[in-house]
Amino acid sequence: MLGVGSGRYELLDDGRRIQCLHCEEIHTPE
Fold this sequence. Notes:
- It contains no helices and 3 strands.
- By secondary structure, the chain is mainly beta.
- It has one domain (1-30).
């Protein structure tokens, strides 16, 4: 699961939680 917008944080597949400014816009850096 990439870019799972949970609240104000976006959970990455790496298990990192970053501040999700635009939860609607999912950014998936490759």
